From TrEMBL:
Gene Ontology, cellular component aspect: plasma membrane
Membrane topology: Single-pass membrane protein
Major location category of this protein: membrane
Entry keywords, A to Z: Cell membrane, Disulfide bond, Leucine-rich repeat, Membrane, Repeat, Signal, Transmembrane, Transmembrane helix
Record-annotated membrane-spanning stretches: 546-572
Pfam families linked: LRR_8
UniProt protein name: Fibronectin type-III domain-containing protein
Superkingdom to which the source organism belongs: Eukaryota
């Protein structure tokens, strides 16, 4: 029996062990399920999107919500759109610094008045434009060492409000926008990694030599809408930017392009809407990679020959809004454009003069340019001629011009071609003259020491040795070039200059003292023959000058004749009695139409409803046709005044106007819009 019960005990033991194993297995599964559920809940909680925002994976859209503070964000957020809200500096939570996944933040068009300081250090791109930020502290930027793009347009940042070395801790900054702020100079301490710098629409007027020092990586520089002039830009300012590919100087006060422009890599040059009057020869040399040149909206009349000799890659030339003079001076440009063919797009190269080619495109002047070729051939055969392809340049800036009857200058031998000379008091002056056309000469000079002003004189030489009158003018001391115009063609001129000291400026323009004679430097220039196009233009200008004079004389004669005829007619009518006498004359304002057979003049309109005549008075009666008028008494007292109906309406008031109790007095009439002539008593 014992042997039979043994197998039964083993079976029960096995069953109990199996149940125990099953329970343990179920418990382990439940624990795993609970753990997974808790982890999933936590994961879902991490991805909760703010109720006022919209989320798309790691892009959080909270823009245009009227928010005054930034809501709690999920840790996975990488791009925040917070623009067009009312977020101020207290609305930036300190917990934002721990959001290490954020790379881009859009906070433009909010109410920030200080640079935000609680931004995460992982930011690469930050948009803060359209706020009221006034300062840029170094400590705030130092919290973002990975920053690459910073937009600070349309704020209130001035040059002095940018802390010294503010960008020193941002070695990766590649793009900096500071447009439409209050900058008066280029910010200092810009990082060497900068590739694009926009400073347009500020108040920058001066660019010193060191302004762009160390910015060897800069490729795009925009300085539009500032106060830049040639005199306030250092000569080697832009030459340091060896890798520059785009330079924009739109809407400034430049008269010529800045000197020493970077040429190796420049692709886009924008100089429109300045005051350019001259493009110096060589100002575009070496720009073999230039693709787009914009000279629109200036005062250019011509371009010097060879200006585009290195522009092999130029594809766009924009020159609209300039008064181009399409004479032989632009024959080289005509040939250059035809040689380029369809490889270049030109906009706005339309002629402003001479009149025979006005509003025509330069490339369409085939016949006119053939005439220039004939003139050039003739000049080669004769051995004369002058290169007239140079621009008519800088505006004249003389203070005043005097004509002296006596030759107060000791002019050298007219047969010599004068070169450089030095003054007897240790000041040197180099003078250079160059004919530009048949009636203009360009004068340039350089001095070793500054002078308060210069006296410039020129004399036209005749066929004999007799000297004519000398024309003198004073030139400001900061000028280095002058344009002589209205000269005689085919003439020789001696042009002299002398620097004036501050004490002798007032008398140097009139008297020639010994010191001035010793410092005198002269040169000789000869004007050329006018070209056929210029002769036609001169003829047209002479005709246009004669026509207004003839019109003025003819008009004056006609007016005098009509006045005499009208006077004779009035005198004759007065003598024959067909006109009203002086006693019955009335002003223009009283009646538009009046004849002699009307009522006797009473000073009011013919309306019995608004006229009250008190004794002694007189009676107003119509006169029969042809009945002679009775003479008026020598003196009578009349009491004539306007009577207004009881409802308050009157001559100058509409039916809807409410009557004023004050109309019983002159003040009431005046305030009611009634002219003084209608409430005065006679």
């Amino acid at each position: 029996m014992f042997t039979i019960m043994a197998p039964v005990g083993v079976a029960k033991l096995r069953a109990r062990l199996f149940l125990l194993f099953l329970c343990l297995t179920l418990r382990a599964g439940m624990l795993q399920f609970a753990s997974a559920t808790i982890q999933g809940y936590i994961g879902d909680r991490d991805m909760i999107c703010p109720s006022v925002c919209r989320c798309d994976e790691d892009f959080i859209y909270c823009n245009d919500r009227g928010l005054s503070s930034i809501p709690s964000l999920p840790p996975s957020a990488s791009v925040l759109y917070l623009q067009n809200n009312q977020i101020n500096n207290p609305g930036l939570p300190t917990s934002l610094e721990r959001q290490l996944a954020i790379r881009v933040v859009y906070l433009y068009d909010n109410e920030l008045d200080e640079f935000p300081v609680h931004l995460p250090p992982s930011i690469r791109e930050l948009h803060l434009q359209d706020n009221n930020i006034r300062t840029i502290p170094r400590s705030a930027l130092a919290r973002m060492p990975l920053l690459e793009k910073l937009h600070l347009d349309d704020n209130s940042i001035s040059t002095v409000s940018i802390e010294d070395q503010a960008f020193a801790d941002n070695p990766r900054l590649r793009l900096l926008f500071l447009s439409r702020n209050h900058l008066s100079s280029i910010p200092s301490g810009l990082p060497a990694s900068l590739e694009e710098l926009r400073l347009d629409d500020n108040r920058i007027s001066t660019i010193p030599t060191h302004a762009f020092r160390g910015l060897s990586s800069l490729r795009c520089l925009v300085l539009d809408g500032n106060l830049l002039a040639n005199q306030r830009i250092a000569d080697d300012t832009f030459s340091r930017l060896a890798n520059l590919t785009e330079l924009s100087l739109v809407r400034n006060s430049l008269q010529t392009p800045p000197v020493n422009l970077p040429s190796a890599h420049l692709q886009r040059l924008s100089l429109q809407e300045n005051a350019l009057t001259h493009m110096p020869r060589g100002s575009l040399d070496g720009m073999h990679r230039l693709l787009r040149l914009d000279l629109s909206g200036n005062n250019l009349t011509t371009l010097p020959r060879g200006l585009f000799k290195d522009l092999d890659s130029l594809g766009q030339l924009l020159v609209r809004g300039n008064p181009w003079h399409c004479g032989c001076n632009l024959r080289w440009l005509y040939d250059w454009l035809h040689a380029r063919g369809n490889t270049i797009t030109v906009r706005g190269l339309n002629c402003h003069g001479p009149d025979r080619v006005r509003d025509m495109a330069l490339k369409d002047l085939a016949s006119e340019m053939e005439e220039c070729e004939l003139v050039r051939t003739r000049d080669r055969v004769g051995g004369g001629g002058v290169d007239t392809s140079t621009t008519h340049t800088p505006p004249q800036g003389s203070l005043f011009t005097l004509r002296s009857k006596r030759p107060g200058l000791g002019l050298p031998d007219s047969g010599l071609d004068y070169t450089l000379s030095s003054s007897g008091v240790g000041k040197s002056l180099a003078l250079n003259v160059k004919p530009l056309s048949h009636n203009s000469v360009r004068v340039t000079w350089s001095v070793a020491q500054p002078s308060s002003s210069f006296r410039l004189s020129w004399l036209r030489l005749g066929t004999g040795n007799a000297m004519g009158s000398i024309t003198e003018t004073l030139v400001r001391g900061d000028r280095r070039e002058y344009l002589l115009t209205s000269l005689q063609p085919r003439s020789s001129y001696i042009i002299c200059m002398v620097p004036l000291a501050a004490s002798s400026e007032s008398k140097g323009a009139i008297s020639g003292d010994a010191d001035s004679d010793e410092a005198l430097v002269c040169a000789k220039a000869e004007t050329s023959d006018p070209t056929p196009l210029e002769e036609d233009e001169n003829e047209d200008s002479k005709k246009m000058t004669v026509l207004p004079l003839a019109g003025i004389v003819g008009g004056a004669t006609a007016i005098v004749s009509l006045t005499l005829i009208f006077g004779i007619f009035c005198w004759y009518g007065h003598r024959t009695g067909h006109l009203c006498t002086r006693d019955h004359y009335t002003r223009k304002n009283s009646r538009k139409k009046k004849s002699c057979d009307d009522y006797i003049e009473s000073g009011t309109k013919k309306d019995n409803t608004i006229l009250e005549i008190r004794s002694p008075g007189f009676q107003m009666t119509p006169l029969a046709a042809g009945q002679p008028m009775q003479p008026k008494p020598l003196r009578e007292d009349y009491i004539i005044h306007t009577i207004y109906p009881s409802n308050g309406t009157g001559l100058y008031k509409g039916d809807n106007h409410v009557s004023d109790a004050g109309h019983g007095t002159n003040r009431g009439y005046r305030e009611g819009g009634i002219p003084d002539i209608d409430y005065c008593y006679t």
